[in-house]
Design a protein that fits this description.
Catalyzes the cleavage of L-kynurenine (L-Kyn) and L-3-hydroxykynurenine (L-3OHKyn) into anthranilic acid (AA) and 3-hydroxyanthranilic acid (3-OHAA), respectively. This protein has about 400 residues and is of the alpha/beta class. It contains 15 helices and 13 strands. The structure holds pyridoxal-5'-phosphate.
Length: about 400
């Protein structure tokens, strides 16, 4: 396995990108699907935004340093990574808030009686947002089915299909093209959450003819803790959307300070308030690493990494109480691999103490994210080896590894 890992690293066309990240020595970082690593050049860019732009230029920086354009500029850069046309993606707010905006937009395009279909593998916040809108609109019914039952639910009747492409727990990947086409045949609108896709997979929003999408800035896009998120609204819907969460940055002329809301042209109408400039500067800088990258190559490396991890774990998995929770078929999963274990929490704490950082998702999932830009095949082998040792020696069974922290 060691020779194979070395050969895979040697043949990796993205291997050189790792040096652009500030990864601590002795750590194998397998949680880039939850918080992307820090690109080395980002601290200087943020420091300059604080010291020079804020400190010296003060409020003139909004124009002088282009702060006011950040949601658009950064949105156009993300659009290029997810197969979206120019003018369709904006960066702002959190994923949850953006989902509220696009779901309420979709509901308004569908009239009074609307059935929304989602699945139980969706991230809780997505379902909470949908439940909230269901409560606010008497004509809206939310139907949550098992991930395997989505296609059937679509056939039974749907007006808005709201799904996350990659399941945060299992890594199971929906077939975006097939499900979007199927929902469109029934006249439905389709919203995709790309939280675990953007920056890791070759998404093609225009190719699948998605209607709306949202996604995270702090996961595979490496925008930093709490980085703003993005939304996508297909050009064909932009003029028809009258935002429910209307705010001055979505107004046609924010600095005209008109009393009545007039939506901005195009995708900008779903913006709400003042952008978080420092976080946006960090995200904008982090995106430099994606300049000129072929997302097909990024996805291919993610598949190779996850395949290799499964191959490394397979020989001892059953004997040591592990069960693969992710699909074996790499085309059916995203860039993380989940393993079930009865003692997932203390096992992950022991892994972290040993320098292998993944995370745990209740009740029993050990989750390992393989960010294609900075994880190598030797890292994968080393992580699998550490996991085997911890399980064989039962070194996870210590009081300090059982004590629950807030963030798992
Ligand atoms: C991570 C994640 C979110 C996070 O939403 P925030 O509002 O940014 O906290 C939402 N949806 C999915 C599917 C996620 O994986």
């Amino acid at each position: 396995m060691k020779a194979r890992a070395a050969a895979l690293d040697d043949a990796d066309p993205l291997a050189a990108l790792r040096d652009r990240f500030a990864l601590p020595a002795g750590v194998v970082y397998l949680d880039g699907n939850s918080l992307g690593a820090l690109p080395r050049h980002v601290p200087d860019r943020v420091a300059s935004a604080v010291q020079t732009e804020w400190g010296e230029h003060l409020i003139t920086a909004w124009n002088r340093d282009g702060w006011v354009d950040l949601p658009v500029r950064t949105g156009e850069r993300i659009a290029a990574l997810i197969g979206a046309a120019p003018g369709t993606v904006r960066v702002t707010d959190s994923t949850s808030v953006n989902l509220f905006k696009v779901l309420s937009a979709a509901l308004s395009l569908k009239g009074n009686r609307v059935t929304v279909v989602s699945d139980s593998g969706n991230f809780p916040t997505d379902l909470y947002v949908a439940h909230g809108l269901e409560r606010a609109h008497p004509g809206v019914t939310l139907k949550v089915v098992a991930p395997e039952a989505v296609a059937v639910a679509v056939d039974e009747g749907v007006d808005v299909l709201m799904l996350t492409e990659v399941d945060y727990r299992t890594g199971r990947r929906h077939d975006m093209a097939a499900l979007t086409a199927r929902a469109h045949e029934r006249g439905a609108l389709v919203i995709w959450d790309l939280a675990h896709s953007a920056g890791a997979l070759a998404v093609d929003l225009e190719g699948v003819r998605a209607d709306f999408a949202v996604g995270c800035g702090y996961k595979f896009l490496n925008g930093g803790p709490g980085a703003p998120a993005f939304y996508y609204i297909a050009e064909r819907h932009q003029a028809a959307v009258d935002p429910l969460l209307a705010g001055w940055f979505g107004h046609a002329a924010p600095f005209a300070f008109e009393t009545a809301f007039r939506p901005a042209e195009g995708a900008d109408r779903l913006r709400v308030g003042t952008p978080p400039v420092l976080s946006m500067v960090a995200l904008d800088a982090a995106l430099d690493i994606f300049d000129g990258l072929d997302m097909g190559a990024v996805q291919a490396k993610g598949r190779a990494l996850t395949d290799f991890f499964i191959a490394c774990v397979d020989p001892f998995a059953a004997e040591l109480g592990l069960e693969l929770a992710s699909p074996r078929d790499p085309a059916a999963r995203g860039s993380h691999v989940s393993l079930r274990h009865e003692q997932a929490y203390p096992v992950m704490q022991a892994l972290i103490a040993a320098g292998v950082i993944g995370d745990m998702r209740a009740p029993d999932i050990l989750r390992f994210g393989f960010a294609p830009l900075y994880v190598g095949f030797s890292d994968v082998l080393s992580a699998a080896g550490t996991l085997e040792t911890i399980l064989r020696q039962e070194s996870w069974d210590r009081p300090e590894f059982h004590a629950r922290k807030v963030v798992t």
